[in-house]
Amino acid sequence: MREYFKQKHQEELSDRETVGASLVSASAPGKLMLFGEHAVVYGYPCIATAVDQRIRAVAQNIPQPRLEIEAPDVGVTNYEKGLSEIGLDTNIFKGVRFVETAIKNFRELYPGDSGLLIQTSSEFSSEFGFGSSSAVTVAVLKAISGLNNVFLTNEDLFRLSYQTVGEVQGVGSGFDLAAAIWGGTINFIAGGKEITPLAVGELSLVVGYTGIKADTPSLIRQVAELYRRDQKWTEGIFGSIASITKEARTSLTKGDWERTGELMNLNQELLVALGVNTKELSRLISAARDAGAWGAKLSGAGGGDCMIALADSEYKKNVEEAIEKVGGKVLRVTSNAEGARIE
Ligand code: PMV
């Protein structure tokens, strides 16, 4: 991969005039999984949408030969490290793990002597499961590539981000990175084998947060354990999830919300079978359905975080109130947000 990026960079430098900016700001959106969670880890497709809540990263050259990070939203202030020490620590402080690893990976491909200050800020809490780690990784890589006059295509940005998240987290399909980079609504296959933007209109979604932070890697391991114990049965569930996701691709692009809602309900039953549902999620999902939603399901790894419901605008307020009545927190977001961008 290194050779690929090196050659590309050299070609670009000869093609373009360097601008020499000393500060670049970039942002990337959070995401919601619509269909296909867990099955996507095993090579099946999923559908995700980017939401209009973003993470920003500002990258700046500084005279001191060190990396400085300010990320007050996750409790990081005055973090600093010598340039030669970036990424060497085997136990990088949690709040800066993704940012520092992203910088290490970028600098391995594009070394430089300049000191670097990174400041990040988020429009959403990292508790919601909107993919804050992925969005911050993408935003930081977008900002530092801009700062260094390196043009990364979406595919390049995905590769570098996927490598980073893989090193920090070890597991995951990368769908959240793709949503943060491409934006909109995408059909995705693990590792970025396929990333297809879908022509889907604005979704009339209601998002309910359970108040419980889910631990995605441990839920992925839990499903892996199920797979190990009974591969045939688990493959059967994944196959059914894949059929639903395939049909949802059509119903979403046709704007057939009623069928999309039914498919969400079916997908939810299969997630229950995988053992990743919780009683809190169930409570919010049932309340949304009873209040007139076309369909509702958990979104993401399960174990907590958020559920989503699709509802006609006429019922949206009812659904929101019903979710709040049973203890959920309604998060107002719109779908199909723009992907990573320099600001
Ligand atoms: O927990 P989230 O919202 O990041 O979603 C995880 C979705 C999984 O399919 C379980 C894992 C993955 O990386 O695709």
Task: Supply the key terms.
343 residues, alpha+beta, eight-stranded mixed sheet, binds (3R)-3-hydroxy-3-methyl-5-(phosphonooxy)pentanoic acid
Task: Give a short summary of the structure.
The chain is of the alpha+beta class and 343 residues long. It has ten helices and twelve strands.
Structure description:
With 343 residues, the protein is of the alpha+beta class. The chain is built from ten helices and twelve strands. α3 packs across α5 and α7 packs antiparallel against α8 (257-273). It binds (3R)-3-hydroxy-3-methyl-5-(phosphonooxy)pentanoic acid (PMV).
Secondary-structure blueprint:
Blueprint: H1 2-15, E1 23-35, E2 46-62, E3 66-71, E4 76-82, H2 97-109, E5 115-122, H3 132-147, H4 154-169, H5 175-182, E6 185-189, E7 194-198, E8 205-209, H6 216-229, H7 231-254, H8 257-273, H9 279-290, E9 295-299, E10 306-310, H10 313-325, E11 329-331, E12 341-342
Parallel strand pairs: 3-5
Antiparallel strand pairs: 1-2, 1-12, 2-5, 2-6, 3-4, 6-7, 8-10, 8-11, 9-10
The structure holds (3R)-3-hydroxy-3-methyl-5-(phosphonooxy)pentanoic acid.
(3R)-3-hydroxy-3-methyl-5-(phosphonooxy)pentanoic acid binds at residues 33, 37-38, 40-41, 129, 131, 172-173, 175-176, 214, 216, 220, 300-301.
Strand content: 15-25%
What is the count of DSSP helices, taking H or I runs of 4+ residues?
A: 10
For the record, give the distance between the C-alpha atoms at the N and C termini, rounded to a whole number.
Answer: 28 Å
The class by helix and strand makeup works out as alpha+beta
